[in-house]
TrEMBL record:
This is alpha-glucosidase. Belongs to the glycosyl hydrolase 13 family. One of its GO terms (biological process) is carbohydrate metabolic process. Keywords: Glycoprotein, Glycosidase, Hydrolase, Signal. Gene3D superfamilies: Glycosidases (3.20.20.80), Golgi alpha-mannosidase II (2.60.40.1180), Oligo-1,6-glucosidase, Domain 2 (3.90.400.10). It comes from Aedes aegypti. Residues 1-29 form the signal peptide.
Length: 589
């Protein structure tokens, strides 16, 4: 890692030294280097949460026909691909992440014919469809689990079972160890019919599949092939670092920082996540995808992996240590979510971005995720005034951008959902006094299309989650009609990303001061771009001559919607005065 990055974290007061080192030791990163880029390498991926995107039949729940009817919105915004949160048949305990049938559509969302219709429309618009794939666990209503409970031949060890420990008091057996569920409480539940405990790293209705059983691996391979045959462009692999646990079921060591033995933070998860076998499974699935592409032709089928993990662990998903086996095309980069917030300084931003680019293998592709269905929205984490600023950052960094639905119009969390309307199981497991500290519902509310009833999402009397009442002002229709808006800024940025410099160029980042982030994107024989982000509520004078190769005169090509600058304005490199929370993209003349 570069010395200036370490110095910033160890001695943040030595800012001038940091700045000098940053100028002389800036990370330079290409995003692959080749003139020929595959479809996924610089596109914008857009996550759709199906329940909340568009309701076509008036039941208050979003569905596939609703998605199909609104794919034009993605095309208009310049989106190249979308990944759908789970659409498979499910009891909906965890809203689709508890799958009962991996090759059937959840009836609330429609039918397989509806899915096929969605694929046809997506293909017509040039939008790739990626499916959320949940291999770590199924629903307890899944036929596989029912057969495993009954100890049917071929399914006996499809899941992780254990006799438990002898109770010294002579009562019921005790859980095998101190492993805890991510969602609170023991990760073990006793099943009276089978007479054993089963492992569930999430809710008790989500039993963990046993990936040490080759039959389970084969079953999941078959599921992948089924959906590839339906035309999907790839998969986002959920909770991939939870796939394996140690075979000897050792107690996990205590963290010493959490006093609640039922809390997930009570132990270090050395034996239940980030095991070497998880990476091997990813390499196996990459081989399957590559083989499918080779045999069937067409665009490369891709894999995105979700793992909240140490960055050194995350990088292993790209490829094997010997470089022979390819892995995930996109090990999700959550650093802009986990490491930055409203209080972060410009050096914090530069450090965090450089952290990923420094650790990432040079021949791989960076990706940047700023939101998803488990995280507070951008405007709620960074402040509403920084919504465009984060969009500018996301769209001008090298590599792949991932947008959560609604971020393009600046939707924010709806924090006033009452207890009786709360759906998230993590919140429902608490009580009506503290539930909002745990709920993910605020970032899952329906998309705000217009100012009509239910924000144009549904004709139902009641929607599955309440609509944020700010929809009367904050909606797509209003932003399309406005001269400046979050949506129009986002649309400009997505279009600008097609420029070769932003697709293939190097990046040089400098924290201009504690409150202003600056960086340039450069490519030989192409125009360069300078990006200036003012994190503060104050005007800031900026001298971009710190970047030696920039022209003296620059053109504003994108400005945040609240900025006094407009597209086409000419500015001098060394005499730039930017307004509060301004975000500018400047192009060399």
């Amino acid at each position: 890692m570069n010395n200036h990055l370490l110095l910033h974290r160890q001695q943040p007061g030595l800012y001038r030294i940091i700045l000098l080192l940053a100028i002389s030791a800036t990370v330079h990163c290409t995003t692959g280097g080749s003139d020929t880029r595959d479809w996924w390498q610089n596109t914008v991926f857009y996550q759709i949460y199906p329940r909340s995107f568009m309701d076509s039949d008036g039941d208050g729940v979003g569905d596939l026909r609703g998605i199909t009817s609104k794919l034009q919105h993605l095309a208009d915004a310049g989106i190249g691909a979308t990944w759908l949160s789970p659409i498979f048949r499910s009891p909906m305990v965890d809203f689709g992440y508890d799958i009962a049938d991996y090759t059937a559509i959840q009836p609330e969302y429609g039918t397989m014919e509806d899915f096929d219709g969605m694929m046809l429309e997506a293909n017509r618009l040039g939008i790739r469809i990626v499916l959320d794939f949940v291999p770590n666990h199924s629903s307890d209503q899944c036929e596989w689990f029912q057969r495993s409970v009954a100890r049917e031949v071929g399914y006996d060890d499809f899941y992780v079972w254990h006799d438990g420990l002898v109770n010294p008091d002579g009562g019921d057996p005790l859980p095998p160890n101190n492993w805890q569920s991510v969602f609170y409480g023991s990760a073990w539940t006793f099943h009276p019919q089978r007479g054993q405990f089963y492992l569930h790293q999430f809710t008790k209705e989500q039993p963990d599949l046993n990936f040490r059983n080759p039959a389970v691996v084969q079953q999941m391979d078959d599921v992948m092939r089924f959906w590839l045959g339906k035309g999907v462009a790839g998969f986002r692999i959920d909770a991939v670092n939870h796939l394996f646990e140690v075979e000897d079921f050792l107690d996990e060591p205590l963290t010493g920082t959490d006093l609640d033995p039922l809390s997930y933070g009570y132990t270090h998860h050395y034996y239940t996540k980030d095991l070497p076998e998880a990476y091997e499974m990813v390499y196996h699935w990459r081989s399957l995808l590559d083989q499918w592409t080779q045999e069937h032709g067409g665009p490369m089928r891709i894999m995105m992996t979700e793992a909240y993990a140490n960055i050194s662990f995350t990088m292993k998903y790209y490829r094997s240590a010997d470089g022979i086996r390819a892995g995930s095309h996109m090990p999700f980069n959550f650093l802009l979510i986990t490491d930055l917030n409203q209080a972060s300084s410009a050096p914090d931003f530069v450090f965090t971005i450089n952290k990923w680019l420094t650790y990432m293998p040079r021949d791989q592709n960076a990706n940047w995720v700023v939101g998803n269905h488990d995280q507070h929205r951008v405007g709620s984490r960074f402040g509403k005034e920084r919504i465009d600023l984060i969009s500018v950052l996301l769209m001008t960094l090298p590599g792949i951008a991932v947008t959560y639905y609604g971020e393009e119009i600046g939707m924010v969390d709806y924090k006033d959902i009452p207890w009786e309307d709360t759906k998230d199981p993590t919140a429902r497991n608490t009580n009506n006094q503290v539930y909002m500290d745990f709920s993910r519902d605020p970032e899952r509310t329906p998309f705000q299309w217009d100012d009509s009833t239910n924000a144009g999402f549904s004709t139902a009397v009641k929607t599955w989650l309440p609509i944020n009442p700010n929809y009367l002002q904050l909606n797509l229709k209003n932003q399309k009609q406005a001269e400046k808006s979050h949506y129009k800024t986002y649309q400009q940025l997505v279009k600008l990303r097609q420029h070769e410099t932003l697709q293939r160029g190097t990046i040089q980042l400098i924290p201009y001061n504690e409150e202003v982030v600056t960086f340039v994107r450069e490519l030989p024989d192409r125009d360069s771009f300078a990006i200036v982000l003012n994190l503060s509520p104050r005007e800031q004078p900026v001298d971009l001559s710190i970047f030696a190769h920039l022209s003296e005169q620059l053109t504003v090509v994108v400005a945040s919607s609240s900025s006094s600058f407009t597209t086409g304005d000419l500015v001098r490199r060394d005499e730039l005065l930017i307004g509060p929370y301004d975000a500018l993209v400047l192009q060399e003349e």
